[in-house]
Predict the 3D structure of the following.
Amino acid sequence: MEDGRLGLPSASSWRRYELCPGSFQLEQEARALGQEAHQASTVASERGDKIHLALADEGIELSESENETAEFLRERADDQIKRIFGDEPVKILKEHRFWLQLGGRPVASGQFDRVIYTDRIALVQDYKTGWAEPDPAETNAQLKFLSVVVAMNLGHVTEVIAQIISGPFGVTETRFNLSELAHAYNDIVGTLRKLRDPQAPFNPSPEACQFCPAVNICQAVKDLILPIARLQHKALPDGERASQLLTECELLENHINSIRDYYAEKLLGDESYMIPGWTMEQGPPRRIVTDWHTARERLEEYIDSGDLNGAESYKIIAIEKALGKKLRLRGTELKAKLAEILNGLLEEKYPEKSLKRIKDQ
Ligand code: SF4
């Protein structure tokens, strides 16, 4: 595997392994069958990867917004180093993978974003670049795993502090002394034992299945969502059954999206791959204004400043509506006039292709 996990369990999936021990063996099966789900990178994951590389000083070029996020996270993370270590000299490791060894053999690994350490203390920092609220450090299974492998690989430390560093959700922190590390280690070894059990149980839940690479071939999920289609109530249920139904809907939604993603990726990646009646279609482009300051100066010739201020979000559609009202233009004429006024300031951005049914088939 390209990412260095060598097909062994890794920290980033630890929460899923805890929730659904059967998922580790099934993900190997999905991989062997070429049926892995959630493999395509998304705009958000590519952005996250770039920011992580920049934070590891890999000299990567970032957009203005990516750079802002990276700088903000760096500053927030550096503040924590000052708070914890003060002026004490520290060593730093970045984007490094540590292995958990049992009986002299590597059995699982975890890659951390940054570890800052002295002879006594190690601080593990994990950057989160997205808008989804991360599991707080106190209950974060990935951080628990990382803390244990850091302690085992930096044998002298007697305390590990682990932090999630996020823009929107701030910093969360947890601490492990030696006895807590021993407890976490036993917990991890217990989970590893369950993963290897040929009878490892499957426990479908939205949290476990959301990013599971095995979701497309998982019978446990299919069994759970089947009853939704057979719902024989005259009216939708309330109470506990409503809660269960909504959970099943979430699983079903995730499962359907994952099936669509799988075929979209195949059609995009292999020109000779065909699915009768289906294709990847390019949606219409979105118009983007590249310089709103100049655009506003030009538009003020046609649209009252009051109306322009009213379109404060500067949505093209709102500007176009105001211009159409003023010049009594509609449709393609209106579009052409706006393009003429904003000549050189408009760009067309195409969305990613999406899976579409071919009409009449
Ligand atoms: S899809 Fe869900 S139930 Fe199936 S293996 Fe993955 S986590 Fe477990």
